[in-house]
Task: structure prediction
Amino acid sequence: MKKYAFLAGVGQYQRRTIAPVHFAVRDVEKIGEVLQQRCGFRTTVLANPSQADFIQGLNDIISFIEHEDDIFFFLFTGHGSVQGNDSYLLFSNAIPGDWVGMYRLEDLQRKFSRLRSHNRLLFLDCCRNDPEAGKSDAAHYMSAPKQSVGPAEPEHRPSCC
Result:
Protein backbone atom coordinates (compact mmCIF):
# COMPACT_ATOMS: atom_id res chain seq x y z
CA MET A 1 0.00 0.00 0.00
CA LYS A 2 1.26 3.44 -0.99
CA LYS A 3 -0.15 6.83 0.01
CA TYR A 4 -0.57 9.76 -2.36
CA ALA A 5 -1.85 13.26 -1.65
CA PHE A 6 -2.74 16.07 -4.04
CA LEU A 7 -3.45 19.47 -2.49
CA ALA A 8 -4.25 22.68 -4.35
CA GLY A 9 -4.89 26.01 -2.67
CA VAL A 10 -5.98 29.11 -4.54
CA GLY A 11 -5.92 32.28 -2.50
CA GLN A 12 -5.04 34.85 -5.17
CA TYR A 13 -6.78 35.27 -8.50
CA GLN A 14 -5.46 37.11 -11.55
CA ARG A 15 -8.83 38.77 -12.04
CA ARG A 16 -9.09 41.58 -9.51
CA THR A 17 -12.87 41.26 -9.26
CA ILE A 18 -12.46 37.83 -7.60
CA ALA A 19 -11.96 38.18 -3.87
CA PRO A 20 -8.88 36.55 -2.36
CA VAL A 21 -9.32 33.49 -0.15
CA HIS A 22 -7.19 34.10 2.92
CA PHE A 23 -5.16 31.14 4.19
CA ALA A 24 -6.05 28.81 1.27
CA VAL A 25 -2.39 28.34 0.32
CA ARG A 26 -1.16 28.18 3.91
CA ASP A 27 -3.73 25.49 4.72
CA VAL A 28 -2.72 23.16 1.88
CA GLU A 29 0.97 23.69 2.64
CA LYS A 30 0.54 22.82 6.33
CA ILE A 31 -1.73 19.83 5.68
CA GLY A 32 0.62 18.59 2.97
CA GLU A 33 3.55 18.87 5.36
CA VAL A 34 1.75 16.78 8.00
CA LEU A 35 0.66 14.15 5.47
CA GLN A 36 4.21 13.82 4.18
CA GLN A 37 6.23 14.03 7.39
CA ARG A 38 3.94 12.30 9.86
CA CYS A 39 1.87 9.99 7.68
CA GLY A 40 4.26 9.00 4.89
CA PHE A 41 2.27 10.35 1.93
CA ARG A 42 3.90 11.22 -1.37
CA THR A 43 2.51 14.74 -1.73
CA THR A 44 1.99 17.27 -4.47
CA VAL A 45 1.10 20.74 -3.19
CA LEU A 46 0.15 23.50 -5.63
CA ALA A 47 -0.08 27.14 -4.55
CA ASN A 48 -2.34 29.36 -6.67
CA PRO A 49 -2.31 27.03 -9.69
CA SER A 50 -3.84 27.81 -13.04
CA GLN A 51 -6.35 25.32 -14.43
CA ALA A 52 -3.64 23.81 -16.68
CA ASP A 53 -1.21 23.42 -13.75
CA PHE A 54 -3.94 21.77 -11.67
CA ILE A 55 -4.85 19.27 -14.40
CA GLN A 56 -1.19 18.43 -15.10
CA GLY A 57 -0.35 18.00 -11.41
CA LEU A 58 -3.40 15.86 -10.75
CA ASN A 59 -2.75 13.64 -13.77
CA ASP A 60 0.90 13.25 -12.74
CA ILE A 61 0.18 11.99 -9.22
CA ILE A 62 -2.74 9.81 -10.33
CA SER A 63 -0.39 8.04 -12.74
CA PHE A 64 1.48 6.58 -9.74
CA ILE A 65 -1.58 4.95 -8.18
CA GLU A 66 -1.35 1.28 -9.08
CA HIS A 67 -3.09 -0.81 -6.42
CA GLU A 68 -6.55 -1.10 -4.94
CA ASP A 69 -5.16 -0.69 -1.43
CA ASP A 70 -3.28 2.54 -2.26
CA ILE A 71 -4.64 5.66 -0.57
CA PHE A 72 -5.42 8.85 -2.47
CA PHE A 73 -6.05 12.09 -0.55
CA PHE A 74 -7.34 15.15 -2.43
CA LEU A 75 -7.82 18.66 -1.03
CA PHE A 76 -8.86 21.83 -2.83
CA THR A 77 -9.17 25.18 -1.06
CA GLY A 78 -10.39 28.25 -2.91
CA HIS A 79 -13.47 29.55 -4.68
CA GLY A 80 -16.22 27.45 -6.17
CA SER A 81 -18.94 28.66 -8.48
CA VAL A 82 -22.14 27.57 -10.17
CA GLN A 83 -22.49 28.19 -13.90
CA GLY A 84 -25.79 26.99 -15.26
CA ASN A 85 -26.49 23.60 -13.65
CA ASP A 86 -22.84 22.74 -12.96
CA SER A 87 -20.50 23.39 -10.05
CA TYR A 88 -16.89 24.38 -10.67
CA LEU A 89 -13.61 24.85 -8.84
CA LEU A 90 -11.92 28.16 -9.72
CA PHE A 91 -8.18 28.48 -10.33
CA SER A 92 -5.91 31.50 -10.37
CA ASN A 93 -6.69 32.22 -14.05
CA ALA A 94 -10.48 31.92 -13.59
CA ILE A 95 -12.91 34.00 -15.60
CA PRO A 96 -16.38 33.15 -14.24
CA GLY A 97 -18.95 32.80 -16.98
CA ASP A 98 -16.36 32.01 -19.64
CA TRP A 99 -15.30 28.61 -18.19
CA VAL A 100 -11.67 29.72 -18.40
CA GLY A 101 -9.66 28.62 -15.36
CA MET A 102 -12.50 26.46 -14.03
CA TYR A 103 -12.86 22.70 -13.49
CA ARG A 104 -16.25 21.03 -13.35
CA LEU A 105 -16.88 18.92 -10.22
CA GLU A 106 -18.65 16.27 -12.27
CA ASP A 107 -15.46 15.80 -14.33
CA LEU A 108 -13.44 15.50 -11.13
CA GLN A 109 -15.82 12.81 -9.84
CA ARG A 110 -15.53 10.93 -13.12
CA LYS A 111 -11.73 11.04 -12.90
CA PHE A 112 -11.82 9.75 -9.30
CA SER A 113 -14.22 6.94 -10.18
CA ARG A 114 -11.59 5.56 -12.58
CA LEU A 115 -8.80 5.44 -10.00
CA ARG A 116 -7.33 2.03 -9.26
CA SER A 117 -7.34 2.83 -5.55
CA HIS A 118 -10.50 2.08 -3.60
CA ASN A 119 -9.32 4.32 -0.76
CA ARG A 120 -10.13 7.87 -1.83
CA LEU A 121 -10.48 10.90 0.40
CA LEU A 122 -11.91 14.01 -1.24
CA PHE A 123 -12.02 17.33 0.61
CA LEU A 124 -13.34 20.56 -0.89
CA ASP A 125 -12.94 23.69 1.20
CA CYS A 126 -14.63 26.11 -1.18
CA CYS A 127 -16.21 29.47 -0.71
CA ARG A 128 -19.53 28.53 -2.24
CA ASN A 129 -20.72 32.00 -3.12
CA ASP A 130 -20.36 34.23 -6.15
CA PRO A 131 -16.57 34.78 -6.18
CA GLU A 132 -16.94 38.26 -7.60
CA ALA A 133 -19.36 39.37 -4.87
CA GLY A 134 -16.71 39.12 -2.16
CA LYS A 135 -19.20 38.21 0.58
CA SER A 136 -20.50 34.91 1.85
CA ASP A 137 -24.11 36.05 1.57
CA ALA A 138 -24.04 36.33 -2.23
CA ALA A 139 -26.88 34.84 -4.24
CA HIS A 140 -25.12 32.06 -6.18
CA TYR A 141 -24.32 29.06 -4.02
CA MET A 142 -22.39 26.03 -5.19
CA SER A 143 -24.62 22.97 -5.37
CA ALA A 144 -23.62 19.55 -4.13
CA PRO A 145 -22.31 17.17 -6.79
CA LYS A 146 -25.02 15.14 -8.52
CA GLN A 147 -23.42 11.84 -7.57
CA SER A 148 -21.40 11.03 -4.49
CA VAL A 149 -17.86 9.77 -4.86
CA GLY A 150 -18.88 7.55 -1.95
CA PRO A 151 -17.06 6.28 1.10
CA ALA A 152 -14.62 3.41 1.08
CA GLU A 153 -16.08 0.06 2.01
CA PRO A 154 -15.81 -0.44 5.80
CA GLU A 155 -13.34 -3.31 5.45
CA HIS A 156 -11.14 -1.09 3.24
CA ARG A 157 -10.95 1.96 5.47
CA PRO A 158 -7.26 2.62 5.98
CA SER A 159 -5.40 3.86 8.97
CA CYS A 160 -3.61 6.72 7.25
CA CYS A 161 -1.15 7.63 9.98
